[in-house]
Inverse folding.
């Protein structure tokens, strides 16, 4: 059966103390509630002695977030431990987390003392914490660079003094996975009372190995993993909790451990932290980055469309993302384009898809990513048989050397007719403006020409237009013996093309909130 491991979240302590990530009490509380929904076992809510604000934040979280254990950090000194207890004592499951460095470099240069004195302070601190609280975690700061025999001696003494969790930090992110796993194995083998405590690890990411080292520790029997959301923390950060969660979940057969988390809450938790701190994650960040479930290469997209397991080892849904994202760009193939068009409700013939694909590729040379609006405009240009969404029912224009050009237009859409009038720079412009008012889809005339397509006085005049809708130009033409009518009809063809290409228009009754049915 899978061994249950505990997840200790230090986003609000180690994470929050790093530059740019500070949070106020309300923000910390919001984050703590979300961490509880995610299902972490322990929330380290802050370092109560460090400031009034941190004390208040820990106390508030202890009172309001009831499911997880709430821990506060304390140096191995009486004042810190007393203050920490004051902050966490109202929690349903309080924990005092006390620490002291055990590496010679810290003992000699930071404390300017001896190993013997560190041992003495360890025991004293753990006993003091134990006097308040059953649940005491002891961390041997800079454990990885400590002399292993001394480290084992300190760990044994801390457990004897009452520590229920022993944490082995790689404080400066110096370890590599094989060494770190080996250290955990040695501690388990050498410390006689080790089974009386949960063995925890806390890895920093200075060499980008925090998650790998934590996982090596899991493989060597660690029972608690410390980390933070989005991997925030001192310097290069802590082990990213979401990566650990998904690694042990995705490779369950290998790790044979389980956690108490609801992984579907990961994405929400990560985004909440980014929103609160104003600091996003890199796009290619594992699990929660914008590109973590995005595919652009044509071969990958084709594989994904056939079976997502070809290029995804976990589903986006499993971390709370609605779906994978096929990014349409210059590496995308026809298959992905066709699928996206279908998902937009745009049904094209094979020839139209081929032609749209060519336009799409041209566009990709100009744009990094092609969005749905771009596709709609491309499709608008492929539509040869234009559905008459709006039909011209009536047109009256007035112009002359001393009159302001005006136009009145009546358009029919299904069973309703819509009427509007406008002035303009000329009768055609006035009619176009009246049409815009009715359709609610303002176009800009980019090109316009009139040619006679037949001869004689009653020659049929053909109006050719290119109408710009946003960034897109839609070509259209229409003929009539009346060149103003030909111009208006051509414009209407462009409008109808654009509307036909917009899936939202299908089945929509009213054309725009501005359009007034006639007679109103
Ligand atoms: O990195 C570290 O050693 C710490 C301890 C206080 C656990 O953050
Ligand atoms: Zn740390």
């Amino acid at each position: 059966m899978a061994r249950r491991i505990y997840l200790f979240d230090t986003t609000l302590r180690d994470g929050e103390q790093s530059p740019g990530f500070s949070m106020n009490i309300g923000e910390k509380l919001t984050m703590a509630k979300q961490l509880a929904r995610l299902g972490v076992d322990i929330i380290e809510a802050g370092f109560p002695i460090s400031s009034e604000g941190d004390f208040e934040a820990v106390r508030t979280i202890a009172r309001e977030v009831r499911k997880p254990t709430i821990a506060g950090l304390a140096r191995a000194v009486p004042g810190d431990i007393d203050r920490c207890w004051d902050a966490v004592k109202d929690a349903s499951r309080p924990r005092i987390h006390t620490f002291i460095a055990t590496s010679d470099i810290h003992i000699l240069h930071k404390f300017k003392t001896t190993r013997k004195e560190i041992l003495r302070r360890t025991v004293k601190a753990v006993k003091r914490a134990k006097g308040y609280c059953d649940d005491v975690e002891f961390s041997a700061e800079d454990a990885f660079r400590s002399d292993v025999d001394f480290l084992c001696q300190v760990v044994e003494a801390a457990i004897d003094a009452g520590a229920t969790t022993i944490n082995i930090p790689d404080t400066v992110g110096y370890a590599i996975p094989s060494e770190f796993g080996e250290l955990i194995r040695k501690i388990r083998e050498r410390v006689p009372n080790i089974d009386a405590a949960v063995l925890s690890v806390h890895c920093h990411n200075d060499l980008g190995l925090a998650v790998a080292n934590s996982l090596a520790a899991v493989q060597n029997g660690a029972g608690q993993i410390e980390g933070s959301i989005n991997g925030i923390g001192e310097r290069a950060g802590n082990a990213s909790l979401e990566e650990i969660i998904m690694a042990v979940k995705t490779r369950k057969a290998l790790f044979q451990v389980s956690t108490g988390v609801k992984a579907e809450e990961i994405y929400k938790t990560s985004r909440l932290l980014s929103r609160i701190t104003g600091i996003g994650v890199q796009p290619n960040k594992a699990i929660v980055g914008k590109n973590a479930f995005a595919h652009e290469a044509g071969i990958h997209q084709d594989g994904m469309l056939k079976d997502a397991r070809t290029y995804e080892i976990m589903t986006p849904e499993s971390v709370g993302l609605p779906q994978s994202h096929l990014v349409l760009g210059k590496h995308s193939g026809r298959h992905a384009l066709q699928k996206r068009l279908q998902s937009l409700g745009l049904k094209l013939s094979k020839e139209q898809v081929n032609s749209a694909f060519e336009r799409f590729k041209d566009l990709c040379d100009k744009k990094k990513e092609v969005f749905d609006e771009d596709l709609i405009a491309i499709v608008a240009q492929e539509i040869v048989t234009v559905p008459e969404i709006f039909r011209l029912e009536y047109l009256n224009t007035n112009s002359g050397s001393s009159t302001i050009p005006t136009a009145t237009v009546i358009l029919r859409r299904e069973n309703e007719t819509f009427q509007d009038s406008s002035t303009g720079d000329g009768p055609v412009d006035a009619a176009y403006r009246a049409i815009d008012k009715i359709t609610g889809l303002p176009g800009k005339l980019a090109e316009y020409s009139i040619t006679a397509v037949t001869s004689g006085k009653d020659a049929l005049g053909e109006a050719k237009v290119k109408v710009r809708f946003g960034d897109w130009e839609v070509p259209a033409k229409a003929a009539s013996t009346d060149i103003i009518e030909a111009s208006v009809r051509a414009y209407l063809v462009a409008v109808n093309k654009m509307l036909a290409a917009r899936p939202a228009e299908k089945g929509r009754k009213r054309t725009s909130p501005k359009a007034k049915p006639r007679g109103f």
